[in-house]
Amino acid sequence: MINRNGTVEFILLIALLNALTAMSIDTMLPAIGVIANELGAADPNNRQFIITALFGGMTLGTLIYGPASDSIGRKPAIFIGLAIFAIGALMCLFATNFSAMLMGRFIQGLGAASPRFVSTAMVRDGLAGSAMARVMSFVMTVFMLVPILAPSIGQLVLLVFHWRFIFGGFFVMSIVAGLWLGLRQEETLPIERRLPFSPRTLLASGIEAFRHPVTLGYTLAMGCVFSGLISYLGTSQQIFAELYGQGAWFAIWFAGFAVALALSTIANGRFVVRLGMRAITKWALRASIGFSLIFLIVASLYGGTPPLATLGVYLFLNFFCLGLLFGNYNALALEPVGHIAGMASAVSGFIFSVISIVGGTLVGQTYNDTVIPLVAGFGGFGVLAFLLTEWAESKRKTLAKL
Known about the structure:
Layout: H1 8-26, H2 32-38, H3 49-72, H4 74-93, H5 98-126, H6 129-160, H7 164-184, H8 199-210, H9 213-243, H10 250-275, H11 277-301, H12 308-334, H13 341-364, H14 372-401
């Protein structure tokens, strides 16, 4: 066991652990219609639950694995998560009805939360400053590439094999990751630095965090922003593959919008120090709302089915704006509670994930063979996020004067 933090092998391992989550979401998208039809989903919109069930499991896992890894160590926590992920993948692989598929996806999501979040803690254990930034920069590059490539992988599987091979691939990935972690990576959290797991401490930290209006406001705003993303993930296959008849080209469209998110992440890294998080998020959110309101009018003029090219331009611009919000909102939410950042991050992640799943699912279930519910959802959630962040900022300025 010779792998050390900061080595190329360590970086690749962390990238793989992070990629499991994105692969579990995006590889599925071209296949959800086929899966829902074959397994007897009662309503065409029910296919969206294949995506939201995974998010539901991840939401619960977000609250568990961070504190658990502080207590039992990083490797055991990731092993548990990978084992649960593998079980969920097998449940989906052999599912004979739609309910069994959704249960398997929930279990898969519950497991996926561990490698996604605990792997970041492994980096933080042994590295700091520029060394940690270098590792996380590469990991985030991989994480941004996965949404670009994963739908094409799923589409290729559908063209050559059966959709069940996708879940076989997830199972193999979890086994490879587990063996690599077990055989090549040392534990990064020594026993003397471990903390007892205490639900009471977690609850107390959550209460303390959300007594601060800035943390509360930006957490709720994150939930609103992610609600739009969840509704998009749930309906994108229906919109592009079926409504616009793009079929296999759906993966290419999805990749293009993932590029917008990647570009915004790069742009944020270059300009956030110069302009500040608050200025960037303020104008990005206003632009997103403006684009959505304008395109809602355009879509209405075309009876809810505007030309595909105009939809593509709108979504690209909107996702570029949203990409400027995600990381900055998280940082702004945790800024006032740095002394309990770990616990606060777990609770914050749980709260905004619940909000986004509920909000995104409600919008997705109103899909009516037009793009109006999706665009209206982006615009409406944007307005809610604007009101919440304005409230948070007014409270912050008031507290600063005290």
